[in-house]
Each structure stands twice: as C-alpha cells, then as structure tokens.
Inverse folding.
C-alpha cells in the first residue's frame, strides 16, 4: 500500500489557522502534497473518521474545545491556477480568492474582480457561493472536480448543484470540492482598476487591522444586516475580548484575548437584540464548528 507524502500533525491549535485567531485543537491536521496525495490519504482513512476541510479559516468560528477527527488543510497546497483555451481557468480550492482575482485580470479575463474583496480561499467561495457588489462565484462555474471519502475523484457539471444566496446544495453527500473550471468573459480595460477600487473600499469600510472573519450575518432580503445591528445599538458591544466593530456593524473583531465562546455569545446577543428591535431573524454567514470547552467529548 502506498503512503501519502503530505504532512500529518496531531493536536494542532486551530487558533493559528483561523482569521479570528481563536479555536481549540484539531485531533489531526493533514496538509496534502497535491490532489493525488490527498486521494491516497483519504483511501487509507478509517471509514468513520470525521473529516473537516479548512482553507484560510475566514468565515469560520472553531469552538474552544477544538475539532474531533481530521482537519484537511488546502491552502498553500491545492493552489494551482491553470489557463485553458476559450477564456477558461482551472482553479484549485486552496487558492486565495484575492489572488485569483489578480491572476484572472493578468490573463485579461473578467468577472472575478469582486473576489479581491473576499478574504478567504476559493474553496470557501465555491462552497458558499460567495459574492459581493452584484457578482457571485457560481455564475462563472462550468464544472467542479470533487473527491469522496474513498479518494475517488470525478468531475461534475455545475448544473448538478442547486445554487442560491450563500448556499450550494450538492447532488450527493460526503463529496468535497478540490477544483473548478470557470468560463470567463474578456476583461474590460479597467479590470485592474476595479480591483484596486474594491480593495480601497474594503480598507475604508472594514476593520482589517483587527482579527475578524468577514461578514458575520447574511443580509436579509431587501435590507442590510449592518444597518439592523447598528439600529439595535449593538455597535461597539463587547463580550470579553470580542466586540461588534465600531467601523462596520456586521463584523465582530477580536480586540485581544477573545475566546470562541466570547464571539459565539456576542453573535447570539446580536441576533436576540435585532429580533427584539426589528422582528428580523439574522442568519449567520459564518460557520460555527467544533466542541465547546468542557464538553465531555472534547480532547483533554
């Protein structure tokens, strides 16, 4: 039996792998050398081993007790961008979204400038149909490459997936994205300028100097989560080291020493106050995963 070539570590703190800089340990963390190596590793995993996929760790809250099972880290490894004929790109899930926007523009391909303002991996953008400023990830996807628990890889047409606002429903379970092909239009002359404008807008309106996970809540139809949160007088609200940003109300920042429990409690409080003031149930955009500290199932 062949052995994988990637790096397998044990009891790895995920605070160093998430943009909020919080989170307990993963039982195991595997960083594959490439797609073939990932397939080899998965084929040798126990069938009931819990698997969790991690890109840049944005849009994610890992609880303080950590994650049981194996975390598969894709950033820095599944990160190829390959130009194809006909205005297409083949992109690995480990590519940072802002890098993809810049590379597409260098190939004179348009449509992806919006990704410059999304601080996560392409895999995360693919999994949640990330978007902003009127554009979304899946409007350009023609097909995706997936891998299953047995390490079997296949290509699926984009039409096999149900796509919605911040939602992607797969035709089968226990199958994960490892790459996608995008069909893109020819870039307009000011594509690079658009990217720079988006980055400038992000710097001007978002708390980039403090650890955060991007937008915490989805925008309700016809409204903005930030407006509702600010109207509920939650801007600047703190729980321990977590605070609703005084620059952008839909961001929660780690002002120093925050725990995942602080952040999760503040998320709950914001939802309660917005519901009480406005009758609107905010839906979190961030994923909350793992065990709370002190859970019986958490690692000692």
């Amino acid at each position: 039996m062949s052995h994988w070539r990637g790096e397998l570590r044990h009891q790895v703190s995920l605070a160093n792998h998430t943009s909020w800089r919080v989170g307990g340990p993963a039982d195991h963390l595997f960083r594959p050398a490439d797609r073939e190596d990932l397939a080899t590793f998965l084929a040798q995993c126990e069938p009931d081993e819990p698997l969790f996929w991690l890109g840049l760790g944005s849009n994610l809250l890992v609880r303080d007790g950590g994650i049981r099972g194996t975390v598969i880290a894709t950033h820095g490894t599944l990160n190829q961008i390959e130009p194809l004929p006909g205005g297409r790109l083949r992109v690995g899930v480990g590519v940072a979204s802002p890098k993809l926007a810049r590379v597409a523009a260098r190939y004179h391909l348009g449509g992806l400038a919006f990704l410059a303002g999304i601080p996560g991996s392409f895999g995360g953008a693919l999994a949640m149909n990330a978007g902003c400023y009127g554009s979304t990830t899946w409007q350009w996807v023609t097909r995706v490459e997936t891998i299953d628990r047995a390490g079997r890889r296949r290509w699926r047409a984009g039409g096999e997936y149900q796509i919605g606002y911040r939602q992607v429903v797969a035709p089968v379970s226990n199958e994960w994205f490892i790459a996608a092909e995008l069909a893109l239009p020819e870039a307009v002359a000011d594509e690079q300028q658009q990217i720079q404008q988006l980055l400038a807008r992000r710097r001007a309106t978002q708390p980039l100097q403090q650890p955060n996970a991007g937008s915490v809540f989805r925008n309700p139809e016809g409204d903005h989560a930030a407006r509702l949160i600010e109207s509920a007088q939650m801007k600047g609200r703190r729980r321990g080291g977590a605070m609703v940003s005084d620059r952008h109300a839909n961001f929660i920042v780690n002002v120093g020493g925050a725990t995942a429990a602080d952040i999760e409690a503040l998320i709950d409080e914001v939802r309660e106050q917005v519901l009480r003031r406005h009758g609107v149930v905010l839906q979190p955009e961030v994923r909350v995963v793992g065990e709370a500290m002190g859970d019986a199932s958490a690692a000692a």
